[in-house]
Amino acid sequence: MARTGRPRIFDRDEAVVQAMLLFWEQGFEATSLLQLRAVMGDISAASFYAAFESKEALYKEAVERYMNTFGRVTKSFSDLALSPKEAIETTLRSTAKMQTDSAHPSGCLIVLSATTCSSKNNHIRDIAAEKRKLTRNRLQDCIRRAVDTGELPASTDIHMLTTVFDTFMQGISTQARDGVPFETIDQAITKFMEIWNLVRHSA
Amino acid sequence: MARTGRPRIFDRDEAVVQAMLLFWEQGFEATSLLQLRAVMGDISAASFYAAFESKEALYKEAVERYMNTFGRVTKSFSDLALSPKEAIETTLRSTAKMQTDSAHPSGCLIVLSATTCSSKNNHIRDIAAEKRKLTRNRLQDCIRRAVDTGELPASTDIHMLTTVFDTFMQGISTQARDGVPFETIDQAITKFMEIWNLVRHSA
DNA sequence: TTAATTATATACTAATCGATCCATAAATCA
DNA sequence: TGATTTATGGATCGATTAGTATATAATTAA
Prior knowledge:
The structure is a homodimer. Chain A is mainly alpha-helical. Chain A folds into 2 domains: 12-65, Homeodomain-like (Arc Repressor Mutant, subunit A); 73-200, Tetracycline Repressor, domain 2. Chain A has 10 helices and no strands. Chain A has helices spanning 12-26, 33-39, 45-51, 55-68, 84-99, 109-112, 122-148, 158-177, 182-192, 195-200. Chain A is elongated. At the A-B interface, α7, α8, α9 and α10 of A face α7, α8, α9 and α10 of B. The first copy, chain A, binds a DNA duplex through α3.
């Protein structure tokens, strides 16, 4: 059952991807409708608003698309086939690798695209902030699992340790934006992960 | 010898501070001239452009002001009265304390206010990026000093270790923006700093 | 063939953007 | 006093912002 009406001249799915890349590079507020429509296939304003409700609605779609593609690098947090330590280390290395890939904007869209914005757009900031919270929760679950299975001592301060790893992970975005190469970040991760063994033997 | 001409009706110095706070909160592009003029004492457009050359020039002044006030928390990197480890630990704790102070915007202006911007404004991004580079260099000098004095082994990878601490420090900005309280970050710093001893005994 | 549906192109809106012009006010200097 | 200097208020600039109105084109369903 094909849908009725005049067919869309552009690929909506591909348009979302291109919009995502632009939001990733420039952030929400710095990206204009004119720029968006250009990269989305030189579509008209009418076509844009017919296919997407608003700039904000498109941003939400772009964020979701990011989470389901590039943002998947943090999925290892929830990989029960890995030990918690392996899960975190894998996530950090995948994150660094992805964020320094020159095939797309550097850093993380969720961390960079809307951390600052005008007061009237605080609800925009919340869109990405919510995703950061979700990721942090999965990191925390991963650490909790390590405590539950005895890999880390029962005395471990889960909240504190989550902050240690979350802080480092978010810092990778700025490092990547500033051009620090993957190899350097990767070596830094190797050193950073040694914290795990310290926690392990701090009972 | 008082200067000639009609006296300025607003406090230029205080106006820069208020502009700095607004750039800090909202970022460069999200902050409009209208908002700036409002917080700078409800000054007119003519007064603004007479006292400051442009929005960009004001931003540069605001960045300098930040570096000479709130940004001073990283000065400990260069405090030779402290051991390198103390210098870094002091800087991290001061940074966390400052960035979570509710008396002003959270996080770091240098990290947050211009990491993303429209393509035409890439030179704006460079203003803050240059400051991040300077801070990183002072952190690196601090670590180099530890190697030179023998506090860290001669085999230490200074570049890598600088990345470890710089990444964590920059991550504090997003943590602060997301409302993580000082106490939590402070405890995370305690755990994070244990890396130092690992490097010390990794010869 | 006609109706219904959907997307299109084009023109346009009101608001805001950073920045400028100009006449005038308020100070010092001679 | 009168000349010089600087800052002011207020109007305005062209460009750009996100978003809309309208008429038409292109498809499917009946």
